[in-house]
Specification:
By secondary structure, the chain is mainly β. Helix content is 6%, strand content 56%. It has three helices and 24 strands. It starts with a helix and ends with a strand.
């Protein structure tokens, strides 16, 4: 029976991990806060310290010591977004002349699923081991070829899958520590139109690449008593060196495919969580997240044919997230929860905001519920609505990748605003223990 349960667990881990590659989400920077369905319901507050599911593998592995027996859980989230751009005077600059950029407004959003799955077991009384398969980072924007910002971005897609084995040790009734390894796959695609002349049809360029990287996560938890605990979790930077191709079409004398490389250091993240049971039926949770986005200074792509690097300055800044949540146990079978979160954007100004990642400060309003179907089977449901503050863009790029770029005589300036951008996240999760 135990062997059969383990076989089912591994199958669930495998199937849900496949869904991660379809991730599509508008989020702070391109960091994904969605790692568990109960977390959706409390806007991620607590960061694994509630002890009601195995997401501590991701946020703070020390909190795995709160779990008993063996637990397998799989969660599926579906994200819908609205990302409508309004042109407010975009221009082309060519040989000293400035003309309006032709094209229409477009919605760059794309809906899709995200998955997260965890397995935790207790081989010894004060020792826990776990495995998580999640998506720490990801973003997709997709515009049609006739939109006004086509020289800046068409389809931009970044996807990750993180395989995270971990362990935790409880030293005494008050203190636990944990650690894990991140084995992370990343896949990126960037495409845009290529300017060939005011009266000529556009060309097209697509760059794509992928890589595997290694990192780690660590955590510590202090339990003042059975009702109050605090924790700190840390996820390290992971360097990805993308190895891929550039495909150029519709540009006379330059079209074709060449090798391309790019490096990206994904940022460190610090999670600070708190949990307090104020009443046998009421729990309060809080969380603070810091992300070292100042690592993200530019996107630089190098080409095997020796042509000039394609460089997009970013100059992002470190960002903070603050979250509060509440859980209410209505009866032994039903628990309800709600939460609020403020997520600060790392984008420093409208000059560095790009249509591929048009991020801005955002606010989360969340609700959720859990139903205990049987003693060892729990169904979780969650919903979050994300309000994005209006995001202005005044981003200028060079239209040619050559020595002429430094003169700034062929440029495109995208001027406009993303107004009333939003995202809706719904999630369902099944937890099974044995």
């Amino acid at each position: 029976m135990v062997e059969s349960s383990y076989r089912v667990s591994i199958n669930v881990l495998w199937v849900t991990s496949l869904l991660i590659f379809s991730s599509s989400v508008l989020c702070g920077g391109f960091q994904i806060s969605i790692q568990t369905v109960p977390g959706i319901g409390r806007a991620a507050a607590g960061y694994g310290l509630v002890g009601d599911d195995a997401s501590a593998v991701f946020y703070n592995p020390a909190a795995l010591t709160l779990l008993q027996d063996t637990q397998i859980q799989g969660g599926l989230f579906y994200v819908t977004t609205s990302l409508e751009f309004e042109n407010q005077g975009s221009t082309l600059g060519t040989l000293g002349q400035t003309v309006p950029t032709g094209g229409v407004n477009r919605d760059g959003s794309e809906d899709g699923p995200i998955a997260a799955t965890y397995l935790v077991t207790d081989p010894a009384e004060r020792f826990r081991v776990g495995l998580g398969i999640t998506t720490p980072f990801g973003s997709v924007t997709d515009y049609k070829g006739d939109w006004v910002g086509r020289y800046h971005a068409l389809r931009s897609e970044f996807k990750t899958i993180d395989i995270n084995p971990s362990f935790a040790v409880r030293f005494n009734d008050h203190f636990s520590i944990g650690a894990g390894m991140s084995i992370q796959y990343a896949d990126a695609t960037l495409s845009r139109a290529v300017f060939t002349g005011l009266q000529l049809p556009d060309g097209f360029v697509r760059v794509e690449g992928k890589d595997w990287g290694l990192g780690y996560n660590v955590g510590a938890m202090y339990e003042a008593n059975q009702n109050t605990r605090f924790g700190v979790g840390f996820r390290s930077t992971i360097e990805q060196t993308f190895d891929g191709i550039r495909k150029l079409e519709g540009v006379p004398g330059l079209s074709g495919t060449v090798g391309a490389k790019a490096r990206l250091k994904l940022p460190e993240t610090l999670y600070i969580g708190a949990y307090h049971q104020v009443h046998p039926r009421w729990d309060l949770t809080a969380g603070i997240r810091w992300t070292n986005w100042s690592r993200f200074e530019e996107i630089r792509i190098r080409f095997a044919d020796g042509s000039p690097d394609d460089v997009t300055p970013q100059n992002w800044e470190d960002s903070w997230t603050f979250a509060l949540g509440v859980d209410y146990r209505y009866n032994p079978d039903w628990t309800f929860r709600a939460g609020y979160s403020f997520d600060e954007t790392p984008v420093p100004s409208k000059q560095f905001r790009t249509p591929s990642m048009p991020d801005n400060d955002n606010h989360w309003l969340a609700v959720g519920a859990s139903y205990k179907y049987r003693k060892n089977i729990v169904l979780d449901l969650g919903y979050t609505h994300v309000f994005y503050e209006d995001a202005e863009i005044e981003n200028t790029i060079n239209l040619v990748s050559s020595n002429l770029a430094s003169l700034g005589i062929f440029t495109s300036t995208l001027v406009g605003e993303y107004e009333s951008a939003s995202a809706d996240v719904v999630g369902a999760q099944l937890r099974y223990s044995f």
